[in-house]
Structure formats: structure tokens, C-alpha cells
Amino acid sequence: MKYRTPLNNVLGLGSSKSGVHHWWVQRLTAVALIPLTLWFAYAVVSGRLDVSSFQGARAFIGQPIHAMLLILLTFTMLHHSQLGLQVIVEDYVHGPLKTITLIASKFAHIMAGVAGIYSIVIISIAGQAS
Amino acid sequence: MANHDRPLSPHLGIYRWQISNGLSILHRMTGVALFTGAFLFVAWLLSALVAPACYDFFMGVMRSWFGVLVMLGYTFCFYFHLCNGIRHLGWDIGKGYGKDTAVKTGIIVVVISSTLTLISAFIVYSSTGGAS
What is the full per-residue pLDDT of chain B (132 aa) written as tens digits? Predict the structure, then answer.
């Protein structure tokens, strides 16, 4: 005789794991990236962001609104990238290499996120001080 | 994985290429390309943090013929992944599943993303007078 309840059998299996959350955050970040990436693409193409010079780039990044949007863009883009890459690795990479690749990808994305947001904040503070 | 006698689904190689499966794998490939693009974006931010010489070196690489080619590729990957992503979000809310509709939206995605790529490239090219 089994004393386990149906709920106990299911917990930790199938959709009761983190799959739905992963799927949902992938979509949420996708929706958020539509305005964020279009804003940045517009800034570059229109020339509002002068990428040709160090000063031009810093003047754009340092604006409070730009800095906030850039932080949102960096975070959301790297989060979406990590989630997407995870699905692809899980599909095509197998064995121990799969775990190694997943951990390396997650670490790389987090490091990139910290580096990007740190840069934006410091450039912004330097712009306010001068 | 002990039982090797199980029936297998038809191998991927026997399917005829259509716009639906073509754009599906292109969505993944452009996604992987944009993952590297996101890291390049962070490299750009870092170069703007460090020093003018570092920034100029970064932009110098991006202005070389190779850099321009890569940026043109990223531009298409971005617009395609954006447009096809919206198509995917439509499917997620249950819209656009008809066979004809899926083909039609697929063609629209290719046309719009190619057009936006050409327009963006043209504007940047004409405002910088060459590689940018």
C-alpha cells in the first residue's frame, strides 16, 4: 500500500518544477525588450547617440533617463539571452558537458550584466559630477 | 536509453524546407547571434567606461570592413528576431495558427525585417559617410 498522496508524487516533477516560470519570464522579457531595443536602435540610427566619439557616447549614457533605460535594457536583454541560450543548450548538448555549458553561460551572463550596469552607473555619476 | 527498438520519429533530414521551419530555426540562430551581440554591447559600455583610447580602439575595430559586415549581420538578426518574436508572441496568445496565416505572417516578417535593415544601414551609412 502506498501512503503517498497524489500531490506528493507530482511535486518536483514535470510542470511543478520551474518550467512554467522559465517560459513566462522568457515572454515577459521579450515584451519588455520590444520598446527598449527599439528605443536604443532609434538612438543609434537617428544619431542622438553619437557613437563616433568617447565624449559623445558618455554624454548620451550619462543622461539620467538614458542611464535608467540602458540599465533596464542591459538587464532584460541578458536575462532573455540567458533563458534562450539555456533552452538551446538543453536541446543540443548532452551529458556532463550540458551542466558545464549551462553553468558557464549563466556565470558569463551575470558577469556581463554586472559589467554593463556598473559601467552605466559610473559613467552617469561622472557626468553628474562634472 | 536501454531500449533501442523503440520506433523513431522521422529524421529531421527528410522534411522539405518550408518558410515555417526555415524561420523557426532562423529564430534560434539569430537568437544565438544576438546573445554574442549582447556581450558586444557590454564591451561597448565598458570601453566607454575605461578610457578614450580604449573606446577608439573598440570603434576602430567596428569600423573596419569586418566590423561593418558584422554590424550589418547583427542589424538583420535584431530586426528579424524582433519581428519574428512578435509573431511568436501572437502564437502564445493563440493567434495566427492557420496554415495560410502562418506562411503569410512569415513572409511579412522577412519583408519588414529586411526593409528595416536596409533603411537603418542606409541612414547610418549616409550620416557617417562610410563605415560605422
Answer: 566 778 777 777 788 888 999 999 999 999 999 999 999 999 999 999 999 999 999 999 999 999 999 999 999 999 999 999 999 999 999 999 999 999 999 999 999 999 999 999 999 998 876 544
In a domain, A32, yes or no: yes
Domain of residue A108, CATH code: 1.20.1300.10
Domain B18-128 top-level CATH class: mainly alpha
The verdict on a CB contact (< 8 Å) between A74 and B45 is yes
Q: Which residue of A has its CA nearest to B88?
A: A27
Based on the structure, what is the number of domains in chain A?
Answer: 1
For residue B5, the 8-state DSSP code is -
Residue range(s) defining the domain that contains residue A63: 21-129
- Give A4 to chain B, closest Cα distance, Å: 28
If DSSP states are collapsed to H, E and C, what string results for A46-66? HCCCCCCCHHHHHHHHHCHHH
Helix H or strand E encompassing B101: helix B99-128
pTM for the structure as a whole:
0.88
> Domains of chain B: which residue ranges?
18-128
